[in-house]
Amino acid sequence: MNSKIFLHAIAFAVVAVWGSTFVVTKLLLQEGLSPAQIFTLRFIIAYVLLLAYSLGRSVFHTQRSTLFASSWRDELLMVLLGITGGSVYFLAENAAMLYTTATNTSLIVCSCPLFTMLLMAVFWRKTERFTRVQVMGSLLACLGMAIVVMNGHFVLHLSPLGDLLAFAACLCWAFYSLLTKKAVERYAPLFITRKVFFYGLLTMIPYYILMPSEAGIFISPSTLHLPPSIIFNLLFLGVVASLLCYVLWNWVISKLGAVVATNWVYCNPLVTILFAWWLLNEPVTPWLILGTLLILFGMYFADRKHQ
Q1: What's the CA gap between 302 and 100, in Å, rounded?
Q2: CA-to-CA distance for 38 and 52, rounded, in angstroms?
Q3: Which residues lie below 8 Å from residue 63, measured CB to CB, with a gap of 6+?
Q4: Residue 211: which residues within 8 A CB-CB, separation 6 or more?
Q5: Contacts of 225 (CB under 8 A, 6+ apart)
Q6: What is the CA radius of gyration of the chain?
């Protein structure tokens, strides 16, 4: 029981960090960096550190560092993880913000646990069966998340392109969770995370070919003289939000399962609002309290099968 509580605490901590990244990313955007540049820089930092750790462990502990998966099919799986959990996910989510409201984007992207459960039922229907209590629990948590995001303003401004991009990001993370479930059966979370960073960066190359102006920052001498505030925020995104959180998230999925772990995504907007209350003095409304209770009760029932 204690180990289960610990795993859920780690999942919440990861989601809490990811919830705070919206504020950090906004600060970097105000400094003039683009969403694609922020993603690329944070993944470069995470990949270099993780690769150095893997190579160092192979040198000092006489352990062979594995650079590739054991088969081309598994290597292709790692490519898909890099796309769904890296390049396409971040590009779709950030681009959605350009065409639709933050409320729409948050509401759509944070509904990915429902789609994870649906995809799990389709692709793992022989081994994963969900009870009515679990399904109702997930729906209850999703309702709570919607109440938190909308915060009493139950009006959506539809934007087909922006909402479609947000939905694409939602599906990307749902598929990432399912693919991770398959990958952790054969590979360690550290190896999987390193491959996610590598292929996430590699699959960004076509974007920079189409947008060469954004690639200039990586070859400009001014990049070596970034202000300390930018460096600090990039290190937070690269070391904490990417390196540490991705490793822990992949590990949690291997222990709790894709559906139970992904349900914690419902808390993402809740954490963001709490940070806004703490740092920006924004009020906590009764809608926030109601939504929080629904999320907690929903997640409790969604995990009943695993008690």
Answers
A1: 31
A2: 21
A3: 57
A4: 36
A5: none
A6: 19
- Measured in degrees and rounded to the nearest 5, phi and psi for residue 111 equal -90, 10
The rounded distance, in Å, linking the Cα atoms of 262 and 142 is 12
Tell me the pTM: 0.81
Q: What is the DSSP string of 54-87?
A: HHHHHHHS--PPP-S-SSHHHHHHHHHHHIIIII
Give which of 162, 152, 170 is closest to 110, Cα–Cα: 170
What is the per-residue pLDDT across 28-80, written as a single tens digit (0 to 9) for each? 877 888 888 889 999 999 999 998 888 877 666 555 557 788 899 999 999 99
Q: Can you tell me which residue has the tokens 């960066």?
A: 201
How many CB atoms are located within 10 Å of the residue 88 CB?
A: 21
* Token couple for 64: 């062979």
Mind listing the pLDDT tens digit for each residue in 214-252?
877 766 665 656 788 888 999 999 999 999 999 999 999
Task: Kindly report, residue by residue over 88-129, the tens digit of the pLDDT.
Answer: 998 888 788 777 766 567 677 777 887 787 777 777 665 566
Place of tokens 């995104």: 237
Cα(177)–Cα(89) distance, integer angstroms: 12
Q: Is the dihedral of CA 33, 36, 38, 41 positive or negative?
A: negative
Which secondary structure element, helix H or strand E, spans residue 255, and what is its range? helix 245-256
CA 130, distance to chain mean position in Å, is 24
What's the rounded Cα separation, in Å, for the pair 283 and 307? 36
CA distance 135 to 143: 12
Structure tokens at 31: 């400094």
Provide the token pair at 260.
Answer: 């139970």
DSSP string, 286-297: HHHHHHHHHHHH
- Enter the tokens of residue 219: 């070859």
The residue type of 157 is H
Q: For residue 142, which of 301, 307, 306, 305 has the smallest C-alpha distance? A: 301
Residues 97 and 64: their CA atoms lie apart, in Å, by 43
